[in-house]
Amino acid sequence: MLRTVLLTALAPVAWGTTYLVTTELMPADRPVLTALVRVLPVGLLLTAWARELPWGSWWWRTAVLGGLNIGVFQVLLFVAAYRLPGGVAATAGAVQPLVVAALAAGLLGERLRLIMGFAGLGGVVGVGLLVLTPQAALDPLGVVAALAGAVSMATGVVLTKRWGRPVGLVTATGWQLVAGGLLLLPLVFVLEGPPPILTGRNWLGAVWLATVGTGVAYSVWFRGIERLPVSSLSFLGLMSPLTATVLGWVVLDQSLTAGQLTGAALIAVTVVATQVGGVRLHRPASLPPALPVVGATTKPVPVLVPSDKTPVSTP
Questions:
Q1: Which of 19, 201, 232, 300 lies 20 to 30 Å (CA to CA) from residue 107?
Q2: pLDDT at 123
Q3: How many CB atoms lie within 10 A of CB 15?
Q4: What gap in Å lies between CA 82 and CA 79, rounded to an integer?
Q5: Residue 308: what pLDDT?
């Protein structure tokens, strides 16, 4: 179980590199394009490699999960990033574990424990201390977008756990990335216009975001959703702002205040406490069966479809 926790934690750590890579390597003021570049190409590659398309109810389920986990979440994330200081957006997004715990209690039957409530508040405070600045200003639309993005991702996590998947891990990841990318594709032209010509630095950043930051990260994240209680797994997401801050300190020579160090310590304690609690209470069980859909067709899984044991060293 500890190995699963550590492997799953690599996903938010990889996502924590996004700010550094985007600001240093990607085109300026092109957030939706950056989101598209990181999800659609690798999703198409994974789907082409697997040679398996959704069927029956999995057409709409893939669209829902891809929208919640990737497409809608990315749009709301960037709206919040544009209208709010990064610290405010990250702090608002830190409510996600609380939303996941509440949804998991209602849809998955996971017990809503008091410690998770306190841990959720501790996570919000820790992120606030880590990334908020005295000059941070509140924009109502930006705050709503940040909170809505947290709810979108939280709902996607819980539904991913509830519905399971009918195919291998890499194949299912590819489906969701394609669904989310197709949602982002028209928004690039509507909101930002025709894409610019990418430079060598841009391509370097795009390759990192698409492979490590998306293909590998989402694969291990979805694997963790299946094997861990989502109410504790969601707290691993707090590793993302912590990673971004540490990289800013190491790579960009940014300074850390006493308040930020306190926030980092609080985040570390929160993550460890919730994972220890989740491991103790977790009882291995089969994945919850997918809910029947009237009129849906079924299809046997071909032998050649990648299994859970397919290595994810490359997305």
A1: 300
A2: 84
A3: 22
A4: 5
A5: 39
pLDDT reported for residue 85: 59
Q: Taking all residues of the chain, what is their mean pLDDT, rounded to a whole number? A: 82
Q: Which tokens sit at 8?
A: 């799953």
Condensed to tens digits (0 to 9), the pLDDT of residues 13-66 reads: 998 888 788 888 988 888 889 889 999 999 999 999 999 999 999 999 999 999
Average the pLDDT over each of 35-44, 136-145, 188-197, 213-222 and give the range with the smallest value.
Answer: 136-145
- Which among 234, 259, 239 has a CA at the least distance from the CA of 131? 259
Token code pair at residue 218: 């989402």
DSSP the chain: -HHHHHHHHHHHHHHTTHHHHHHHHSPTT-HHHHHHHHHHHHHHHHHHHHT----TTHHHHHHHHHIIIIIHHHHHHHHHHHHS-HHHHHHHHTTHHHHHHHHHHHHT-----HHHHHHHHHHHHHHHHHH--TT----HHHHHHHHHHHHHHHHHHHHHHHH--SS-HHHHHHHHHHHHHHHHHHHHHHHH-SPPPP-HHHHHHHHHHHIIIIIIHHHHHHHHHHHS-HHHHGGGGGHHHHHHHHHHHHTS-----HHHHHHHHHHHHHHHHHHHHHHHH----PPPPPPP-TT----PPPTTS--TTS--S--
- Enter the pTM of the model: 0.80
What are the φ and ψ backbone dihedral angles of 52, each rounded to 5 degrees?
-145, 125
